[in-house]
UniProtKB/TrEMBL annotation:
Protein name: Ig-like domain-containing protein
Domain called Ig-like: residue spans: 19-61, 70-146, 167-240
Coiled coil: none
Species name: Ilyodon furcidens (goldbreast splitfin)
InterPro entries: Ig-like_dom, Ig-like_dom_sf, Ig-like_fold, Ig_sub, Ig_sub2
Amino acid sequence: LQVQLMKSEYKQNYTRAELKCQSSCQPDHQSYIWIKNGWEHLRETSSSVSVSVYSADTYSCALKGYEEFPSISVYAPQLPSASVSPSGEIVEGRSVTLTCTSDANPAADYTWYKEDGQKTSSNESQLIFTSIQSSDSGRFICKAENQLGWKWSEYKHIDVKYAPQLPHVSVSPSGEIVAGSSVTLTCNSDANPAANYTWYKEDEESPKVSGQNFIITDVRPEHSGNYSCEAQNTRGSRISTVHLVVVRGHLLLVT
């Protein structure tokens, strides 16, 4: 015995379906038993039945007098299970696979979506990134669907780790820097995890300061020179350099 789904129509919170019980037995068996949720017998005894299928419902059929030999049940997808491989830290450039599985009969079709609602390129149970990029970070969800209904998986968060990008170094105030004034050097780099910053001055081995900002409160001509910012995290490091020129202040004579 086999239950065939002849047609179906999604409603607001259930599916209206027409089911047919197919039998390879002799044609003198005219009466059928329809079984809902494994125990409830429907009054319908023909080979076809029209039913309302909710998310937890199952339907099977049997020949009358042979109720102990029912068909395999048909049912909407159960709550999908979503997984990420490899588990643990996800590093840019590596291969990553998201897999979605759901118990369903008929077998479920799968669709992956990113958290912004955008459908991905995969219509399979697996969403494969052969070389994952930082732009792929985000939350993903899988929809399992057959003719009797659908279910959504839980979100899976993808957090792609990557080395710092080339830092951008800025100087404030911009323009001419006058001795005796204050100047701030700022370093920014896109990185995951967030970068740590270290400042160096040319021809000096020891770092000047750690942190995103390097502030010189009473700048002098001897502060002129090249300053390098190193952005570093567990994935790597990058360095950018800025040239600082300090001029002596002008003396205004009043007569």
